[in-house]
Amino acid sequence: MNQVLLSNHFLKVFQNLVSSVKPSKRNDPDTDGYKISIFISEFLANGFDSSLRGRNKPSFLVPTDDPQWKKKVDYAKKHNLYHYHIGIPDYETDSNGDLTSEYVVHYQKIDKYTIKLVDLDSHPPFNLPPETVMTGSNNFLDILKEE
User: Fold this and answer.
1) pLDDT 10s per residue in the chain (147 long)?
2) Are 33 and 13 in contact (CB under 8 A)?
3) I need a surface site. Which of 26, 44, 47, 64 has the fewest CB within 10 A?
4) d(Cα 48, Cα 15) in Å, to the nearest integer?
5) pTM
6) Nearest 5°: CA angle at 72, between 97 and 101?
7) Quick check: 76 and 70 in contact, CB under 8 A?
8) What is the distance, to the nearest Å, from the Cα of residue 38 to the centroid of all Cα atoms in its chain?
9) Helix (H, G, I), strand (E, B) or coil at 38
10) What residue spans define the domains of the chain?
11) pLDDT tens-digit series, residues 83-120
12) Residue 122: which of 32, 8, 18, 6 has the closest Cα?
């Protein structure tokens, strides 16, 4: 069974996105919280076998012309970091036909069935999330039960 965890930081980000929207608009596909919810739902239902709309890739695939290439590659591998283009504010099609967006969700791939969402950040520039935002492991389904 697939599982989505949220770091303490990401839990706050997600709660702020959801609570800042009027209850009548929470299922609006144009809201940021809804876009994150769709990503979570897709992963829970289908894992990485789903056809996620946005570009999803390992964060260690850093352009080799980046001045901090080695440091970023090592850091991303150490923390199993990946990022998903979430469609915030909207999707754009790049030259390869991939759907990219200004904002990405950074996550750790714990194993084949488990991911931990750790940050939401603009891209470019491509910055890796600091270790401070990776602490905590709140199970998304448990959070839903509490609400």
Assistant:
1) 999 999 999 999 999 998 887 777 767 888 999 999 999 999 999 998 877 889 999 999 999 999 999 999 999 999 999 999 999 999 999 999 999 999 999 999 999 999 999 999 998 888 999 999 999 999 999 987 776
2) no
3) 64
4) 24
5) 0.93
6) 30
7) no
8) 11
9) helix
10) 3-146
11) 999 999 999 999 999 999 999 999 999 999 999 999 99
12) 32
Residue carrying the six token digits 């991303």: 76
Residue type present at position 17: L
Q: What is the SS3 assignment for 5? A: strand
**Two tokens at 19?**
């609570």
Instruction: Say which residue the tokens 């967006």 belong to.
Output: 101
Reduced to 3 states, what is the DSSP secondary structure of residue 105? strand
- Which pairing describes strands 56-58 and 3-6: parallel, antiparallel, or unpaired? unpaired
